[in-house]
Amino acid sequence: MRILAIETSCDETALALLEATGGLSAPQFKILGNVISSQIEVHRPWGGVVPNLAKREHLKNLPVVLEELVGGPASGKKPGLLALDAIAVTVGPGLEPALWTGVNFAKELYKNLKKKNSKLKLIGVNHLEGHLYSFLLKQKAEFSIFPPEADPPSEDNFQFSKRKLFPAIALIVSGGHTILLKMDSLTKWKKLGETRDDAVGEAFDKVAKMLDLPYPGGPEIQKLAKQGNSHAIEFPRPMIHDKSYDFSYSGLKTSVLYYLRDRKEAEPPRVGGSASRKLKADVAASFQEAALDVLVTKATRAAKEYEARSIFLSGGVAANASLREKLEATSKKMRIGFIAPPMDFNTDNGVMIGVAGYISYLRKKNKRITAQANLNL
Ligand code: KG4
Ligand code: ZN
Fold first, then answer.
1. 8 lines ligand 1 (CB under 6 A)
2. In what helix (H) or strand (E) does residue 374 lie, and over which residues does it extend?
3. How far is the CA of 345 from the centre of ligand 1 (A)?
């Protein structure tokens, strides 16, 4: 099945073209094209994503990105739009004005193409399912989870055999969500917990702002943290000992705010009035350590409780090297698999929407094709 996938839930206009084959026990994906037009520079002066600016940019970018993906001289081997079997589009969660641009674009395209291709399908995709299923993109070279039978089993692909993959614990960490799930199969899961206030990515972005770092804050905190001491400041680890699998990040964020305020009052004014580079690096490192500690502790506890055979990590914060290292180490210790998508597929992208669209198609579970800003898993 050839799928055109469209993602506009936040600040990336992301389109991808995929060839998906296989059933629910062995879906395989070949990426024919993947284009992302990022709006980071547009939103940076505002310190965060401005919904109406995102809408304007998506409207401008969608036809350009589509042309780059399927048209133009570089499209040589790519199938044209008439060769599509389905269009998959993110319907939520996300910023409503941004979601509508993708939904309307997909609907219009579907209407036009359907005249010549009566079998074309339009699939509504939950953005969070996109993140969740991005672990299926583990093998970058082949983009298939289950290696061909002829392939000799290796250390690297052992976890991709269906029998050994589940039950799994999946952690989705993004700018809008922090969710822990138990997965019994590709299609059967139970939410164990989620954040009660801020998402972990949101906390990274807000703390970055306090440290005068540009948006988006996650990668900036990670960079600065490398120069700091992660044990310099003992920030709280909210809900770490709570028996639920819920999370809370607003208290940690406030602790950082108070810490910086107290230090500022205690110290003589500096040139420019801002905290020193060393102090900022220690704050970044100690905050990151506290934020990740809760994620890793809870994911590990869940993996033990449910006797998981693997841990999946996804969402924008999954790009954090320290988080990947910590979860990989804990998984190794438990002798279970750890799977995070290749770097390009952690933050928002069209490929993961195509993957989730295909799984929805196989499950015959289509979402309403309308923007649903508060959709959840
Ligand atoms: O999944 P995503 O691209 O968009 C949403 O669905 O929200 O996630 C974006 C979030 C932002 O909060 C960003 O700061 C965070 O992911 N992020 C990171 C890193 N890279 C992106 N957080 C921590 N460390 C990183 N390296
Ligand atoms: Zn996302």
1. no
2. none
3. 11
Choice among 88-92, 174-178, 270-274, 323-327 with the minimum mean pLDDT: 270-274
Indicate the helix (H) or strand (E) that contains 179.
strand 178-183
**pTM for the full predicted model:** 0.91
Which carries the bigger pLDDT value, residue 149 or residue 203? 203
Q: How far away, in angstroms, is 125 Cα from ligand 2 center?
A: 12
Could you give the CA distance from residue 341 to residue 160 in angstroms, rounded to a whole number?
13
Question: Which atom of ligand 1 has the smallest separation from the CA of 12?
Answer: 3
Residue of 95, 317, 326, 348 to test ligand 1 pocket, by largest number of atoms within 8 Å of CB? 317
How does the average pLDDT of the chain come out, rounded? 90
User: Residues 6 or more apart from 201 whose CB is under 8 A from it?
Assistant: 173, 174, 175, 176, 178, 218, 315, 316, 317
CATH number assigned to the domain covering 2-133+345-363 = 3.30.420.40
Per-residue pLDDT band at 158 (split at 50, 70, 90): very low
Multiple choice CATH, 139-340, 3.30.450.40, 3.20.20.70, 3.30.420.40, 1.20.1250.20: 3.30.420.40
**Would you kindly state where each structural domain of the chain is located, as residue ranges?**
2-133+345-363, 139-340
